[in-house]
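COURSE: Structural Biology Practicum
ASSIGNMENT: Worksheet 4, Part C
STUDENT ID: 0417
INSTRUCTIONS: Below are two proteins. For each, the amino acid sequence is given first, followed by its structure token string. Answer the questions at the end about the second protein only.

PROTEIN I
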Amino acid sequence: MMGMSANLVVRGSVFLPESELMWRFSRSSGPGGQHVNTSDTQVELRFDLAATEALPAVWKDRALERLAGRLIDGAVVVRSSEHRSQWRNREAAAERLVAIIAEATAPPPKPRRPTKIPRGINERRLREKRARSDTKRSRTPKNWD
């Protein structure tokens, strides 16, 4: 679990400063009985990706491109209401935000180098195919008039 007063570490020495995180709390639906009607346990965490200076420029551009369909006015919004306590929902939202940012800023995978199928494999496949064909052909009666 991560501490809430500290910055959220994305990867290595890159982190999301607490000052750039905007928290909002509201009443949560779901289990909880009478308690749920009186406490603001649902958490909404907003991080303005377009305006941040915390991420390196390359990471920021990559994240903006990959998260384009998810951004609301340039910000990533994460909601959490699965726990009954606000504190646990805050931790869950923070972990989810870090995971989203880390995945969006990850370097692209190396391109696949196409490889040739070895000639021996192809020849063996054709040889087995011919053998199977001969086996099936030998099962049919020759003069079936």
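PROTEIN II
(use this one for the questions)
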Amino acid sequence: MENSFMDNSYSVKVGEDFDLKLSKDTISSLDLIKNGEGSYHLLKDGASYHIKIVDSDFNQGKYTISINGSEYLTSIHTPLDELIQKMGFAVNAGKNVDSISAPMPGLILDILVEEGQEVNEEDQLLILEAMKMENIITSPRTGVIKKISVSKGDAVDKKQLLIEFQ
């Protein structure tokens, strides 16, 4: 299966005002030299930039960087991050959710929980086959399963209710 939706570009947001897309080719063509742990020198269009990574949260894609002494909060999103967001999944968005709906049309391959069962955040709830891939749907929060609205073997539509929490 070809991943044509993955355009190999990264969305970079610096502060509140500056958004750009960088392709892997653009990144690899940069005149960037690592000159220490988390420290870099960049030459771009005849200008010299001293860049230091001050703080990083890789899992969230958030970094505080210093460019020539000025600090900026940046976020970097890969094509996969953007796909996950478009599919309706978002990091930390599910802390207060009451239910889980299908992120895409597919087939329920397996249900890994029962009504009344206590689950923790990230516990596996069910397996949804979509686009010839098995997708494990995990719990967005700690809670108790109130109702399971589908059965193994069911075909589901995008946004169809799958599981409700108490």
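ANSWER KEY EXCERPT:
Q1: The longest helix spans residues 79-86.
Q2: The two ends are 39 Å apart (CA to CA).
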